[in-house]
Design goal:
375 residues, alpha+beta, 8-stranded antiparallel β-sheet
Length: 375
């Protein structure tokens, strides 16, 4: 009985303290599932073009963006994923502020630019991950994830369906609204607890990445990959971007280039993120590091030859965003992000009613004691 009372107190206290933040995190997570589609719907003038015969080369795209924003450096270039999409060039400032530049993939015209945090994806990620509060907000999000895990465990301890599953999931729609509210809270909470706890756990892993990474490599006895650098050759210049991308394509001919990251310092590597559509999600996005001068492929991660530790480290993001099952899991993750809102509302009603009943009971006891005390 003491364990149940403790579980009830923890469950309710964390829900009341962190409930609003968990709702914000859940709702923004739901929107992020379809943020790419939302951005294209809201800003077609920046992200869509009329398909033509031949697209311009990635090198020319980078040169155009550099000329448009000469004080910034190209950080990441997203390739068109369909014939009617633009190139998106993310530029970075000396103080690590990002700006997206949109380049017509056929005639090279700059269609516009905007700070990354003002894009649909950037705004949602800043709220979802940082709560608009930088590193402090990100740590708070991680703590909220831990709080949700405690709520999930205590909710399972409080669930009344362990002896009779049918009763635990039953919603008595014809009963008074207070019972319907109670049934909704317990049934929806238990039905969603496994997936929500998985999302919370993987979110915590990404927030507290350094200790998580250290623990994974230590437990799996996997070697940590070294820091890869380009060998600077006196008198030579970096290879053309088009040549480097051809080197990546030759390494993984079954892959399609999704994004690439130009080297920003003389010893940095040129990085390419590819997609292999016929592979399952855990092998789908190999990441290649190339020497910017020779084009030598120094390392391929996120692929079949990864160590156990590297595979485990790639899992949190995939499991957190729900990309591993196509449209079905994307829809499921979008819906699961709405659950904290329903649980907060129904939980608050239960908490408030319990407070009212407790106050009413105390008042009745005090009234009874006053009557008994009369001569």
């Amino acid at each position: 009985m003491k364990l149940r009372r403790l579980a009830l107190r923890l469950h309710g206290s964390i829900g009341i303290i962190a409930g609003i933040l968990l709702v914000v995190i859940g709702l923004t997570g739901s929107l992020l599932v379809f943020s790419h589609e939302i951005d294209h719907l809201v800003h077609p003038q920046l992200l869509q073009v009329v398909s033509q015969a031949e697209q311009i080369s990635p090198q020319r795209v980078v040169d155009i963006a550099q000329a448009f924003q000469p004080s910034l450096k190209p950080h990441r270039i997203t390739m068109p994923r369909s014939p009617n999409e633009t190139y998106t060039v993310m530029m970075i400032s000396p103080n690590d502020e990002y700006t997206d530049v949109y380049v017509n993939s056929y005639d090279g015209a700059v269609l516009g630019s905007r700070p990354w945090k003002q894009t649909v994806v950037g705004w949602l990620i800043d709220l979802h991950v940082h709560l608009f509060a930088g590193d402090w907000g990100m740590n708070l999000v991680g703590i909220c994830g831990g709080g949700f895990l405690v709520m999930g465990i205590t909710g399972l301890l409080l669930w009344n369906g362990w002896k009779q599953l049918r009763f635990g999931f039953k919603i008595r729609w014809q009963a008074p609204w207070q019972l319907v509210n109670y049934d909704l809270h317990k049934a929806l909470g238990v039905a969603s607890v496994a997936l929500l706890c998985l999302i919370a756990l993987t979110g915590m892993a990404m927030v507290f990445w350094t200790p998580f990474e250290t623990a994974v490599y230590s437990l799996t006895k996997s070697p940590k990959p070294p820091e890869f650098v380009s060998k600077m050759i006196p008198g030579t210049t970096p290879m053309d971007i088009n040549q480097l991308l051809r080197k990546a394509e030759a390494t993984l001919p079954e892959g399609k280039i999704f994004k690439f990251f130009p080297a920003k310092t003389p010893d940095a590597t040129f990085n390419v993120w590819m997609e292999v559509l016929h592979e399952h999600e855990f092998n789908k996005n190999p990441y290649l590091r190339l020497d910017q001068y020779s084009g030598e492929v120094l390392h391929v991660s996120g692929w079949k030859n990864d160590s156990l530790g590297d595979r485990l480290l790639s899992a949190p993001y995939i499991l957190h965003v729900g990309n591993y099952g196509g449209w079905l899991t994307r829809i499921l993750y979008c819906l699961i992000g709405l659950v904290p809102l329903v649980l907060l509302i129904t939980g608050f009603v239960l908490w408030n009613r319990r407070r009212w009943l407790s106050a009413h009971r105390k008042d009745a006891i005090q009234h009874s004691q006053r009557i008994t005390a009369k001569p």
